[in-house]
Design goal:
The chain is α/β, with parallel strands linked by helices and 336 residues long. Helix content is 48%, strand content 17%. It has 10 helices and 9 strands. The chain binds uridine-5'-diphosphate and magnesium ion.
């Protein structure tokens, strides 16, 4: 296969207002390092705004742009997976559409990769501009918590902004799971990975596409995908309660023997409520893993591609690409 030197993969959800500027800065930066030998893969993750139209226009104007339209909103990590799966470059850059990660760093990241003979150069956020205190605090706490519970050392304060070699990407694409926490999966594949410090900019336009609910889902996927520690906690809680109940038994026996046993509604309620809460918590934890197992067991494709504009060179092993509709409109027509 005729591989371009660099593939740049961008997942986009309602990013209409960012795409023009994104393309301008990305292609200027890519040209600066590899000339025309690059491809820019824009993945439309079921946007509700005019993102797909803008992407089609960009693909029509620039032969290095490949625009991919997913059949619906599959979520950030799966949109990213689709873009990676359809990329062909010898090196691959992952970047957000909102220009919080400056494209101008490509050169330095490539230099770091060459100098360190690394397979992955991951960008670590030194500062985050224009994000709420709540987001910064929860993100910082989340990465530290994750680091404690997982067996895979996942770098702190690191998003998906990174440069990868083809062999690291191929290794990543060999992991078939549905619930994808890509920054953790990249850490898991190994090879030589080095950090690259940068200051995260403000969003170019629009709002964050990660409301609290998506952040929580993401955090659950990260923890359950990389650690079974919460299941272990369940047994630890069980063991602790077991010994506690012995103490309680002694206390009850003492009360009975000395004849000082009272009605004890309060303590009974306390124990009932507490045990009930612990049981529900543990059941929930088990449920999380069971749910994951269920989703994985269905073995569905990770994403569905409805339309493509521009030359796709990658091979798409994890997803499904629908045929374009016939002229007479008999086939499923994918809405633009
Ligand atoms: N994104 C996506 N699908 C989604 C949500 C987000 O493809 O369902 C993309 C979004 O367009 C952006 C990237 O994922 O390119 C990161 O999202 P965002 O910048 O909103 O997250 P934040 O930087 O606020 O954490
Ligand atoms: Mg952002």
């Amino acid at each position: 296969m005729n591989r371009p030197a660099l593939s740049i993969v961008v997942p986009c959800y309602n990013e209409e207002a960012c795409l023009g500027e994104l393309h301008r800065r990305l292609s200027a930066a890519a040209r600066g390092v590899v000339g025309n030998d690059h491809e820019i893969i824009l993945v439309n993750d079921g946007s509700r705004d005019g993102s797909w139209r803008v992407m089609q226009a960009l693909a029509a104007a620039d032969p290095r742009v490949v625009a991919i339209n997913l059949s619906r909103n599959h979520g950030h990590q799966l949109a990213l997976t689709a873009g990676l799966d359809l990329s062909a470059g010898r090196q691959i850059l992952i970047i957000d559409a909102d220009l919080q990660d400056p494209p101008e760093l490509i050169g330095e990241m490539r230099a770091t990769m060459a100098r360190e003979e690394a397979d992955v150069v991951y960008a670590v956020r030194r500062r985050r501009e224009g994000e709420t205190l709540f987001k910064k605090l929860t993100a910082a706490a989340f990465y530290r918590f994750l680091d404690r519970v997982t067996d895979t050392p996942i770098p702190l304060d690191t998003g998906d902004f990174r440069l990868m070699s083809r062999r690291a990407l191929d290794a990543l694409l060999s992991l078939p799971e549905q619930a994808r926490f890509i920054r953790g999966m990249v850490a898991w594949v190994g090879f030589r990975q080095v950090p690259f410090l940068y200051d995260r900019a403000e969003r170019h336009a629009g709002e964050t596409k990660y409301p609290l609910s998506k952040m929580l889902r993401f955090a659950f996927d990260a923890v359950t995908g990389f650690s079974t520690a919460p299941l272990r906690w369940a047994s630890h809680i069980g063991i602790a309660l077991f010994f506690l109940s012995f103490l309680l038994l002694g206390y009850i026996a003492f009360g009975w023997l000395t004849g000082s046993a009272v009605q004890g509604w309060t303590s009974t309620m306390l124990v009932t409520v507490f045990l009930g809460a612990v049981q529900m918590l543990v059941l929930g934890m088990i449920g999380e893993y069971l749910g994951r197992l269920y989703v994985e067991s269905k073995r569905r494709p990770l994403y569905l591609v409805a339309d493509v504009a521009g030359p796709v060179r990658g091979k798409a092993t994890l997803g499904f690409r629908a045929e374009p509709p016939d002229d007479d409109g008999t086939a499923i027509s994918a809405e633009a």
